Amino acid sequence: MQRASFADMECPIALALEEVGEGWTLLVLREAFKGARTFADFQQRLGVAPNTLAQRLRRLCDHGLLQRRRYQSNPPRANYDLTEKARDLLPVLLALGAWGTRWLLPAGPLLVPVDAETGRAMDLAVVDRRTSRPVRAGSVALKAGPAASRRLKTALRSPLVLGTKEKKR
Amino acid sequence: MQRASFADMECPIALALEEVGEGWTLLVLREAFKGARTFADFQQRLGVAPNTLAQRLRRLCDHGLLQRRRYQSNPPRANYDLTEKARDLLPVLLALGAWGTRWLLPAGPLLVPVDAETGRAMDLAVVDRRTSRPVRAGSVALKAGPAASRRLKTALRSPLVLGTKEKKR
């Protein structure tokens, strides 16, 4: 991905998608969340060439999303465990999945997320925990954060509201 | 992205990332959320070649994420408005940004999401609105949905818990 300015390199969404936005990466993580742990697990579930899979697993380990743990040395055998960093991504992936289900699956979902304890279907939403209100376009603004330059702070003296409804002109 | 099976084509996360996971697409959406509306707005903010930009805008319109609205015909001038489908994506992008900030920006955030009304910093989380509890790996399971095949329903007779902690072996 080509970048327009240094500021983009600091955009946490762009950074996140560089680590997990790539198709295969995500499929590997998905299968890991569903319980795949060994090289053979992933290969069988994804039907992917061994060298491709080895590359993806290495990349995920390099990014700290999977941890390789050898449990036998002769012959070498390892498990791939989801790290806390990867586990922390599941809610976001489920929220993205809920959006995809709403807008891209007219026939309805094949799979439904349910509460693991009660088995009841979940109604996923991104909320502000301070107010418990769902986040919506028009209700969120961006303010300069601690790492912002003086210039950015000046430019954002008043917070920039995201997704305000456009006035027709 | 190469796909392993038909089921992957029905994965709403994979489908979603195909529409919005690509770098430039996301930067265009980001600028639209920040208020860019005209071709010139996007070009100036992204510093991108006109033909590349035109292509991205067309793609976003094709996917129903932006709506082109001509407001002058001679010379032709148009605005690009975020659709409801795109506006519904903002919470997910902010949740992804919060993850990226936690794990990928050690120096802290340049920008902080705040409540547009009160100006207070938001504490973003993905929750189950039925219980108000944050969604976490280990607390969510997948159940067969209405569009699931009989085979999938049989395979998922008991819900599959996502991201259960692996037992060391």
Describe this structure in words.
Two copies of one chain form a homodimer. With 169 residues, the first copy, chain A, is an alpha+beta fold. In chain A, 41% of the residues lie in helices and 20% in strands. At the A-B interface, helix 2, helix 3, strand 2, helix 7 and strand 3 of A face helix 2, helix 3, strand 2, helix 7 and strand 3 of B. Strand 6 of chain A pairs antiparallel with strand 3 of chain B.
Summarize the structure.
Two copies of one chain form a homodimer. Chain A has 169 residues and is of the alpha+beta class. Chain A is built from eight helices and seven strands; from the N terminus they run αααααββααββββαβ.
Estimated share of beta-strand residues of chain A: 15-25%
Strand order of the largest sheet of chain A: 1-2
Report how far the terminal alpha carbons of chain A are from each other: 34 Å
User: Helicity of chain A, in percent?
Assistant: 40-55%
- The averaged pLDDT of chain A comes out at 88
Interface with most residues = A-B, 107 and 106 residues
Rg of chain A, please?
20 Å
Spans of chain A of 5+ residues with little confidence (pLDDT < 50)? 1-7
For the sheet with most strands of chain A, the description reads: 2 strands, antiparallel
Q: Looking at the chains present, what oligomeric state does this protein adopt?
A: homodimer
Per the principal axes of the C-alpha atoms, what is the gross shape of chain A? globular
State the order of secondary-structure elements of chain A, H for helix, E for strand: HHHHHEEHHEEEEHE
Number of strands of chain A: 7
Secondary structure class of chain A reads: alpha+beta
Q: Total helix count of chain A?
A: 8
